[in-house]
Design brief:
Layout: H1 8-19, H2 24-39, E1 46-50, H3 56-63, E2 73-75, E3 82-87, E4 92-98, H4 100-103, H5 107-113, H6 124-134, E5 139-145, E6 159-161, E7 168-170, H7 179-183, H8 193-196, E8 203-205, E9 218-222, E10 226-231, H9 241-247, E11 252-254, E12 265-267, H10 268-279, E13 284-286, E14 294-299, E15 303-307, H11 309-316, E16 321-325, E17 330-332, E18 339-343, E19 347-349, H12 350-359, E20 365-368, E21 375-380, H13 382-385, H14 393-401, E22 408-414, H15 418-430, E23 435-438, H16 450-456, E24 459-464, E25 475-479, E26 482-486, H17 498-507, H18 514-518
Parallel strand pairs: 1-2, 21-22, 21-23, 23-26
Antiparallel strand pairs: 1-3, 3-4, 4-5, 6-7, 8-11, 9-10, 12-19, 13-14, 14-18, 15-17, 15-20, 16-18, 24-25, 25-26
Helix pairs in contact: 2-3, 15-16
Bound molecules: zinc ion.
């Protein structure tokens, strides 16, 4: 059998020239490509997906007009020795795969494929002869359809210059190129001349600095007791200061009079103020002047702290600057520090500062105000409705609402009946509830019909279940645009649950998606401490 018009011997030579040696996988791949072509209608303009990066793509590139370079061959590494040929326009196609069951009929091929035969003992001649004889008979074919969204050329969009490395990259990758985001699998060896450059600063002996001006804040650290600036930038150094400087271990100091950093360098305080102006978004204030080169950020009001994670990461990938923040999407109080930023060296290169500023194309930090929405509490359970047991759910929720000053629009207690639950939901909405909190779970209890009741009332956009413990069976959705939070009964037992994580976000008007919930998985396991210290704990962070 021929391979795409070549005899086996001709293809063997082609493979050796292209691949360096006639790899068994490549020779088999030739037959797979041949088989795929046979199953496509004559004249089909096709593209190819390879399910492995090994050998098989080379058979495609060698025999067909589809290559990685022209983007008509793509690798989707599923780890299987299989290739998909499909119509470029309709997505209709065939998948050819190495059929493990059929391979067993060929001892040399099986020994090679399953690595049963140690490499040293492999008889290459016998193996190649078997591949030649087997041809397409160890492969199988399936019909497939590649979805529309995978078809057609993806436009790269605008090309811009990376502010960090200065090379061109697609703007859709973000404010900084992927290489500078840390995806490069290598380190650059030689420092560029620019990186070796230093500002011209001249340190003088402390006693020679008398009467001159300190160039930067100088910190005094007493281990375990105090840390703070003992000297401030711009402060004049007196004769009495010399001894203090010596005690701080400062034998030599930088002074304004002795330093001439040049116009290519920016003092840390000037630099960090420029950065802070771009970092702070709505609801975020910052302190000036900088202390020891650092600026802290504070909420202007209580609210939900939101971090632009993409921009924060891009910014911190630039050397010589830093910004550290509290965990985003959490409730923060006015005046408490939520972030700190600084330029790290005393003088930062002007170009470096420009790079850092360019990553800040959007503010990094924001505090969203929470709305004091009237809350309707819907308690479900026939045993509660009949008065057999006292409701503890409504008081629990009321306590949790207090810090956010949300008034109660009403409390409804409904038996476990779909219609009663739907009606109670509607009554809460008419009473002006802007948020409904209910005991709905995803319980398997046959009496638990809360979810059906909510559906009858018009529940929409429901997200059921979240990767948080406690709180796995929680529910989030809306009825007529009014958010609904289903809180599992665990809220009656555990002090802190998924409800406490999500409530501030819902009150801030965030529209949560499945991806937002999935992000809680790491850190979403409560430690169950004897004394709960939430939010001063890692739960949900
Ligand atoms: Zn770059």
């Amino acid at each position: 059998m021929n391979v795409y018009g070549y005899t086996f011997e001709q293809f063997y030579e082609l493979a050796r020239n292209f691949h360096g040696y006639p790899a068994p996988g490549l020779l088999l791949g030739g037959y797979m490509v041949e088989l795929a072509r046979q199953h496509l209608p004559e004249g089909t303009l096709f593209e190819v997906l390879s399910e492995t990066p090994k050998c098989l793509p080379d058979a495609v590139q060698l025999l067909t007009p589809c290559t990685f370079g022209n983007n008509r061959l793509r690798n989707v590494n599923l780890g299987r020795y299989a290739v998909v040929f499909y119509d470029k326009f309709t997505g209709e196609g065939v998948r050819v795969f190495l059929d493990a069951a059929k391979v067993e009929a060929w001892p040399e091929i099986a020994g090679w494929l399953f690595k049963r035969t140690p490499k040293k003992e492999q008889n290459t001649e016998k193996l190649l002869a078997e591949i030649r004889e087997a041809g397409v008979s160890c492969c199988s074919v399936q019909q497939v359809r590649v979805p529309k969204r995978m078809l057609g050329k993806k436009s790269m969009g605008d090309i811009v210059i990376c502010p960090s490395c200065g090379e061109a990259y697609p703007a859709m990758d973000g404010a900084i190129c992927r290489g500078c985001l840390g995806e490069a699998p290598y380190a650059l060896c030689a420092e560029t001349a620019e990186e070796q450059a230093r500002p011209e600063l001249c340190a003088v002996l402390a006693e020679d600095a008398v009467g001159k001006t300190a160039l930067h804040d100088m910190t005094r650290v007493v281990p375990g007791r105090e840390k703070g600036p003992a000297f401030l930038a711009g402060q004049s150094i007196s004769g009495g200061d010399v001894c203090r400087l010596h005690q701080m271990g400062r034998m030599r100091v930088y002074t304004e009079e002795d330093s001439n950093p040049g116009e290519n360098w920016v003092h840390e305080n000037t630099a960090v103020e420029a950065l802070a102006r771009r970092m702070a978004g709505d609801g975020v204030a910052w302190s000036t002047p900088p202390k020891e080169g650092k600026i802290n950020f504070y909420p202007e009001h209580n609210g939900l702290f939101v971090v632009n994670r993409r921009a924060l990461r891009a910014f911190n990938m630039v050397p010589d600057v830093m910004c550290a923040t509290r965990r985003g999407d959490t409730y923060v109080e006015k005046g408490k520090t939520v972030a700190g930023a600084r330029a790290i060296p005393l003088y930062i290169a002007k170009d470096r500062l420009r790079q850092a500023l360019e990553t800040l194309d959007e503010p990094l930090l924001e505090v969203l105000p929470l709305k004091a929405i009237p809350v309707g509490v819907l308690v479900t359970g026939t045993e509660v409705a009949l008065g057999l047991i006292e409701d503890r759910f409504a008081p629990t929720i009321e306590t949790k609402l207090q810090p956010f000053a949300c008034p109660l629009a009403g409390v409804e207690i409904a038996p476990d009946e779909t219609r009663a639950i739907a009606e109670a939901t509607r009554r809460l909405l008419s009473a002006g509830a802007g948020l409904i909190v209910t005991t709905a779970g995803l319980s398997v209890d046959p009496d638990d019909v809360t979810l059906q009741g909510l559906r009858e009332a018009g529940l929409d956009n429901a997200l059921r279940g979240m990767p948080v413990l406690p709180g796995a069976t929680a529910l989030l959705g809306d009825v007529n645009g009014v958010p609904v939070m289903g809180v599992p009964a665990c809220a009656l037992f555990h002090k802190t649950t998924v409800f406490d994580l999500l409530l501030p976000r819902v009150l801030a008007g965030q529209q949560l998606t499945r991806a937002d919930l999935a992000a809680y998985a790491e850190g979403g396991l409560c430690w169950n401490c004897n004394v709960c210290t939430f939010p001063k704990c890692p739960f949900g962070k």
